[in-house]
Amino acid sequence: MEHIPNTDELLRAAQRESTQGTDPVSSTPISDPSKSWLRLTETTLDPVALSRHHIKSAKPSPQSAPYDQLRTRMLSHMRAAGHKRVAITAPTRGCGSSTVTANLALSLARQSDLRVMVLDLNLRHPSLIRLFDLHAAGPRFSVLLGHRRNFDSTCLRIGDNLGLSLNPTPMDDAAERLAHAKTAALLDHIDRDFAPDITLLDLAALSPMDDAVAGLALADCALLVARADVSTRADVDIAERTIAEHSTCLGVVLNGCRHHGKGGA
Hints:
The protein is α/β, with parallel strands linked by helices. It has a single domain (7-12, 28-255), classed as P-loop containing nucleotide triphosphate hydrolases (Rossmann fold, 3-Layer(aba) Sandwich), CATH 3.40.50. The chain is built from 9 helices and 8 strands. It has helices spanning 33-38, 47-52, 65-81, 97-109, 128-131, 174-179, 181-194, 211-216, 233-246; strands at residues 41-43, 85-89, 116-120, 156-158, 162-165, 198-202, 221-227, 249-255. Strands 1-4-5-3-6-2-7-8 form an 8-stranded mixed β-sheet, sandwiched between helices. Strand 4 and strand 5 form a beta hairpin. Helix 3 packs across helix 4 (97-109). The radius of gyration is 17 Å and the shape is globular.
């Protein structure tokens, strides 16, 4: 089971940099956000399927505790810096960054005062729709596919405060789509109409493709997920430098550690 073993070492000292070029429309909703959320298609999650995919944070438990502590630390640093959008990425594939995204999303959504939006922007290898077991549940995130549909019709809602914008269709031109002005405009629309307190952007790994680099430009900050049995120190160093060139590196999560007597990772 993938987990985050030591939350005291999860987040390195956060960089309190202010974001560059904050869009004023994102902080001034032009409509009632609660009405926008009600327009989303509501669905439910299957606890058995979540457990099968190592999603443990739908309810408070010893298994959710590491993600809950990560949630609290991350929120504290983001609020201090005025950040709303966090990208979640990894040095290479196979680090479990999408699993971390899914667990963080459900942990955040348990705070009823927070509106949480999740976008699967790992366009080349989307996996959140599988992790949440929502292949057959309503609309799809087809906005970036060029379909003539608005965001409201392609986003699912869990409960009152969690939006899931998922993507079942891999895209070969992922970097180009993420770098397109329409994608930035879509995120501004979400900020304006839905006023999420936090938006999680699940990105591809930073290597070998440049998809994640294009996605970093859409975020205020980024969380890097490394895996103990996959990532090397050099991988992490290179990834941190890449993030620093395009965004603010909020911290590093070490995933997949094993501890004797605790069932493994």
